[in-house]
Amino acid sequence: MEQKNLFCMWSGGHDSCLALYDAQKSNQIKCIITPIMETNTGHRTHSLSPHILRAQADLLNIPLLIFNTSLQEFEKNYELTLASLKKHKIDGGFFNEITNEERKNLAESICERQKLSNHFPLWQKNKEAALSDFLENGFKAKIIAVNEKCLTREFLGKNLDKEIIEEFRNRKIDIWGENGEYQTIIHEAPFFKDRLILKDGDINLRNGYWTLDISILNVS
């Protein structure tokens, strides 16, 4: 089967890894795309910093495209970004939604208007199975943000593993975190050239999320 030139949406966390992992099996991924959301005070939400996202892209050996946007301007800037890819002969993209129909519908609508194919390899996948695939394939992710309504700050800095997933079950939250219960950073993956060595920093409460500041010590 002929490979297509595609992009993949990338958060830097566990939620985007399996989509990219699937996409690379039979496609040429030309770039990964990450939106960075700005608040009305000019500060980022709990998205990863551009510095860390670029380090991950270097480990993937895939170009990274970042677009900054406010929530109000998100759809417009999202579409402008995807439209800009056509001049690079990119045919479509991979997205990481599992059950969020609103985000899936938005991506489909934009791709349809821009005549780009769209692929959702995780759509309606059992979340228990998705996390099992994640762990069994050798991905490692650290928890760097938690919604204060769902989880306590004690979860910050811990790896997403079977023990933590069981704790999520006990608390009856979405174990995949698709509704913003928690956010992770990937620091080890089968498609990374090396491991990302991280240093934990300060813990803060921002916009309803306990967040862990992190920095890169080195790559090994």
Automatic annotation (TrEMBL):
InterPro entries: Diphthami_syn_dom, Rossmann-like_a/b/a_fold. Residues 8-215 form the Diphthamide synthase domain. It is an enzyme of class 6 (ligase). Gene3D superfamilies: HUPs, putative n-type atp pyrophosphatase, domain 2. Its EC number is 6.3.1.14. The keyword Signal does not apply. This is Diphthine--ammonia ligase. GO terms for molecular function: diphthine-ammonia ligase activity. The keyword Ribosomal protein does not apply. Keywords: Ligase.
